[in-house]
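Folding follows sequence. Below is one example:
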Amino acid sequence: MLPITLVLLVVTSVFAAPSVTVTQYNVNDIPPVADNGKPSSSIENAFDVLSDGGDTNIYILTIRQILNDLANQSDPKSQALAVGQAIAILGELVYGNPGDACAAAELVNAYTSGNKAATRVALINFIQSLVANIDAFVQLILNPNSVRYGSGRRGNCVGGGRSYNFEAAWDSVQSDADPFLSSLYNEEYCAAKRLYNAFNIRSNNVGAAATAASLSPVTEIVQRAYAALVNLLGAIGNNGNVIGAAATAKVELKRAIV
């Protein structure tokens, strides 16, 4: 009779009313993700501090998880790629009103055109936009309302940078990718494409930021400034000396442009 008894128990449990308990916690009471010796914890905690989860769609959340996965890899390139993208994307999420994606779009278009002189100029401008992002992070922590009610940076480009050589950029990114991580890159390509084609400006901006920050010239610069940038993200997520870390990160980013 044992088999019959088990079946009856399963059938009974299927039709039983489920019991669910929901416990709410203040976000400030939730401890930061523990440091695992890789930049994933710093990135995750910085996202929690700087971005509004209620204003983040599923495709931005997907990219956030991909950055976590890249940051947990053992190779320096993947870790730098995650850190650079995190700083670029968070710069699009901190402001209450989005700006535009001119700097990112101009870099993508210049790089995919093969014009080295134009790429150099656009690369410097994009790195300067990352420096400006760092200033915005500090401002958000020191005076939240000034950023919450503020607007992101605006450039002077057609359509606010919402149209650029998306496919050519990701062809380049994926051709440079580690074959063992191709699934991660492809997943990010799909999420970034949904953001690129989205109707709203913030999604477009995040897609452009992720795309531009994935290009090899940006990753190379981030690798040279890597320690300072990770230290900044760690300070943001763990109530550290953000002002000092930001100052060092900005100096190292500018110095990394060669």
About this structure: The first helix runs from residue 2 to 15. The two ends are 78 Å apart (CA to CA). Residues 91 and 133 are 5 Å apart (CA to CA). The mean pLDDT is 89.
